Amino acid sequence: MHLRSAILVLVSLVPTNALTKFNFEVSAEYDLFNQGTAVRYFEDLFYEPQEGQKKPSLNATQLEEVEALRHQAYANPVLALAGAQVLYMFGWFRSTGELIWENILSSAELFERSIYVSDCKPEHSYEVWHDNACDIRWTHAILLYHWLAQTDTTSQQQAYQKKAQELLEGIKRVQKYEPVSSAWTSPGHVNFNSIIFAGKPSRPIWATAELPIGKWLEEHHHIFKAELQAILNEPGDVYGQLMKIDPSREHLATPGGWDTLRIVRYHNWFEVFCQLAPVTCELIKTRPEINECKFMNVNYVRLNPGTHLKPHYGNGPRLSAHLSVIAPEPMKAGLTVADQKRLWVEGEAILFDDTYPHMVSHWGSQPRYVILVWFCHPCDGGNAHNQTCPTV
Ligand SMILES: *[C@@H]1O[C@H](CO)[C@@H](O)[C@H](O)[C@H]1NC(C)=O
Ligand SMILES: *[C@@H]1O[C@H](CO)[C@@H](O)[C@H](O)[C@H]1NC(C)=O
């Protein structure tokens, strides 16, 4: 029997009352629909302000609803993807910052199951692969099993590693990825820019001296720092007020641990910020890597002590830069991109490809501020970014 019809039979055997007890709409056939409704439902709860609780996060009652979904997702294949995604996005941390280990493991297992309940065989046509969002299912299963293998200290560790490796071998059989996937020798190597820029250099971390923007950021560090320090020194938490005018929504970090202050996003300058830090904005406006780029973005990002960012993938075709503007504890805070680690050293820039899996930790006691820049990939052919594509 064809896989798809097998699933439909399976789904029709699911008692419909099992699917009706959720507070979001559920389809008996279409798992992408369920992913959409479930994520929207929990997302609203996740960001809704709640007295006395670090946000964004779910409270204990809301996590019980996630728990109900987790159980149903094992029983009903059509909920596997919804469960995987909700557990990954909203069930990773408690509001206290504690990890919910069983949710992370279930998310890995359910992303993997969602591969088999949808038409996501590597041999299928790219249209089917694309329409079923197969890359999300595969890459997240790989990401999470790899993370579990790196962080688990029990006898399960090798089983997770084996899963990650098997899934990696699977995704490498996808025809569209074949020209580049031979370079993916570890689960951490899977990335999207190497597919977009096939045949061009792909690296998790680019040497700062290799791209002009790296040196430029470092040369102007003292100016950025003086203007940022002046804002931080203003009485009445002006920095916090600025963030509130334009709040960011992201699910990646320990609740309350990571926040962004927009400078410019997709060419929309945050004018109130630019009035307070005029030279910073004027300087950024001189760089073609940023301003000639459709998907440009520049933020201040504060990382509070004790914060961790779960492993995640960014979106191509951009590259990212961090300039450590205020980073007083270089030995205690850093990021991992694929299998490479970097610490934030004040005044230094890190250029990285955020389409590789990456994550962040801060073990120190003082906040760290970086300027985060999304700029054009040097091998991008569609924007006048004025960089040279390296040959190796
Ligand atoms: C969680 O939030 C909901 C809705 O805001 C509320 O009804 C519920 O009592 C809260 N639960 C806890 C444990 O705070
Ligand atoms: C473009 O790059 C060249 C070489 O790095 C540099 O001399 C020139 O000033 C740049 N142009 C702009 C508009 O930044």
TrEMBL record:
The keyword Oxidoreductase applies. The keyword Acyltransferase does not apply. Gene3D superfamilies: B-lactam Antibiotic, Isopenicillin N Synthase, Chain. GO terms for cellular component: membrane. It holds the Pfam family Asp_Arg_Hydrox. Residues 1-18 form the signal peptide. Keywords: Dioxygenase, Oxidoreductase, Signal. GO terms for molecular function: dioxygenase activity. Residues 220-378 form the Aspartyl/asparaginy/proline hydroxylase domain. InterPro entries: Asp/Arg/Pro-Hydrxlase (IPR007803), Asp/Asn_beta-hydroxylase (IPR051821), IPNS-like_sf (IPR027443). Belongs to the aspartyl/asparaginyl beta-hydroxylase family. This is Aspartyl/asparaginyl beta-hydroxylase. The gene is ASPH.
